[in-house]
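Quarterly update from the structural biology core.
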Amino acid sequence: MQIFIVLAIPILLAIYALVDNSAKRIGITNALGYALMLFFSVTLFADRHIGTSHISFFDFIYLDALSVFFIFVISIIAFAAALYSISYICSDLQSALITQKKAKLYYLFFNLFCFSMFLVPSVNNLGMMWVAIEMTTLISAFLVGFYNTKLSVEAAWKYIVICSLGIIFALLGTILFSYAYSVLGESKSLNWTELYFAATRLDKNIIKVAFIFIMVGYGTKAGLAPMHTWLPDAHSQAVSPASALLSGVLLKTALYGILRFSIILNKSVGPEFVSHLFILFGMMSIAVAAGFVLVQKDLKRLLAYSSIEHIGIISVGLGLGGVFGLFGALMHIFNHAAAKAMMFFGAGNIVKAYKEHNMNSIRGVAKIMPFTGVMTLIGLFALSGFPPLAIFLSEISIAIAAFSHASYILGIVFLALLAIVFSAMIRDFSKMIFGNVPSGMKKVHEPFGVKSAMLLLFLQIALFSFFLPWIFKDNFWAAIKLLQGA
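Predicted structure, tokenized:
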């Protein structure tokens, strides 16, 4: 029953946003709703029955260990974004950047966006999953173009056009999977459970071609290079809480779509074909991101290119497979979501205070906003994989997977590219945080909602991440086994 509550809460909150005329009251109610949702997602992830079996309702809702892991990750970032949104939207209202009506629309689209993301890992039908992933694009586009500036509207259209083009490839791949099932002489089906159980009888050539379409299609939405071109514009122009959702969890929902098909393919043709594709696109993404991070001057675009790097890291971990590779990939999905959301919250505070995206004009953040300065510094170290923070654990696990497979060149190049990104991020953020304060800048008050959202993510990065595989050991390790084809 928890899943119906998780899916119902965003819909109810979206309706509430239409009837209440107080943005602050809507924001507080929103945060309370997502706190309740987080509670129910935790109970789902802790349900041992899911780890040994699955939960199915009407053959439409289907939950296994992988599903509940993604629902759990989305719920944490959604709750943090809801907390952060209270002060962020009220500040925009006070500054006359938006009207009361626009604030209501923000909460409407925020909740519909979250609903569509929760729907992706909840459905059994792969066609319905495709619809849910396309919904995330169409709804979140309003949050990308929210301020109606020339750059934000252009970014929103670019986002819609490129991701919708990509999703057409994913649709073709989905249809080919269904065709491969139908030629067995059975009824046509897009249910994942039926395709999975028939995996060994599917035509191997058809589903290999189908998976390439899936990889390119959903890989576009996930931000894998070279299909990543929409991402820097969209993430840099979106409202900051939406940027955190886009980078922290939206990319992962598209990755979830790829994983569902990869499990079928692994059972049918073995893991080698899928492994090579994940490693190819993953290393390409890390390399592209490393190049752009070195020369980037826009704060939010820098974080967007960092997202491309991290989705590449996850992809490499999935491609390497084994216990170390898959452990590292799942941990990285969780850790990156928290670290990147914290960084976008920090970037949102900085841009509001300095009224500037250009990092060359931002200096002395630690003096102007001490809390944001400290949290951004911690987020920077976490995002860069600095020991002993949690992303270091997941990156080292993936590197160990490379060396344990005797892929020494891959492992060395992987670590070298991470070092390049690390040095560039440290260079740019150290200047912003510790530089001399520009003349005329005064200390900025940091609201409670902003602090509480960033503290929640800090606790996740610094403490909770290390214990996740053991607190939820049944479902976490069950998700790894599912990805291994067990």
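The radius of gyration is 21 Å.
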